[in-house]
Amino acid sequence: MSTNTMCLHRLARMPYLALPTVPHCQVTYIWISPCGKFPKGKTRTLDSEPQSVAGKNSLYTQPQGHGFHSKGFLWITLVPVRMFRDPFTRDPNKLVMCDALDLQGTPARESPLSECAKAMEEVKDQKPWFGFEQEFTLMALDQHPFGWRDDPYPTTPGVGEVGLEKIWGRDVSLSHYQACLYAGVKISGITNEGGPAQWEFQIGPCEGIELGDHAWTARYILFRVCEDFGVIPSFHPKLFDHPLWSSDGHMNFSTEAMRSPGGLTRIHAAIERLAQRHMEHVALYGDEHNNRKRMIGGSLSSAFDTFSWRTASRSVSVRIPGHVHSEGRGYLEDRRPPSDCDPYVVCQALVETCLPPPETWNEKISFICTG
Prior knowledge:
Elements: H1 3-12, H2 14-17, E1 25-32, E2 39-46, E3 59-61, E4 76-85, E5 94-101, H3 113-122, E6 129-139, H4 170-183, E7 187-192, E8 198-207, H5 210-229, E9 232-234, E10 251-254, H6 256-259, H7 264-276, H8 278-285, H9 288-294, E11 309-311, E12 318-320, H10 322-327, E13 332-334, H11 343-354
Parallel strand pairs: 1-5, 11-12
Antiparallel strand pairs: 1-2, 3-4, 4-5, 6-8, 6-9, 6-10, 7-8, 10-13, 12-13
Helix pairs in contact: 3-11, 4-5
Pfam family, one: Gln-synt_C
Family: Belongs to the glutamine synthetase family.
Protein name: Glutamine synthetase
């Protein structure tokens, strides 16, 4: 199907979307696919507009594909955990992020939401905040990067460039931005990245489990927006064998103590703990093959096997931003997660490593400070 034909279909649907449906409400349930890489969604009709997700409207579904079936899960229950406005069919309709439970009522293996929620509950008194930097590349329907045809490696434009000869896909990124703001997603900004069709949106600051809920809903909205533009978002961390082009999912992290006067010492202590579990984190964050290709060291990324940190550097595992160092408080940036990481998993790993009681650590090893 051509892009022009799909755009025609988008115009044809507009009169139908304008039809009144009150008092009925369409609620789209969002959950994580069995492979853990993509959002899924299905819609049901409620008799009235829900005011919250508390105790409301679980949905039973039979997932498509091989993931759950291969483990014997023929049915799952979708349990709403956070509600947003629907930017596609608009008020009073809703999007709801859901946890996935198996037949026994326990979290499905591919759903990390429940375990992350438990970890956040245990440290809620420390008020952990997160900010997520989601990079992605826009792909055409022929599986080539959007706007690329002859030259396999167009000139790298650099972050923040403007001009059609340098940047492709701005309308998609701006539309996604607007849709997230309408929905109530905590999106804090967008920027173009190093590739001509590569973009980033930022989620946060969010407290605790909130980050995963908002990040996954933003991913769902991105896929839906891209449907309207006839393009496909790719979260693959290393699409091309190019030394400068990769897609990351950097996670910013802090606690109330880190954000308070003198918090830099707490940040240093957290970095030391991260150093001790470096390879465990890298294994949790994503596929080793892709991440080894992405984390090659140099000016833009750290080395896969070696933990490092520095102030105001991009070539390290963990960065302390320059203004955080100057103010003596703030947050750290974990630069190891790839663009296709699961934000729930990354957030859980950070709090479980950085915030356990000191007596649980029997060994202390010096971490690598490169500056």
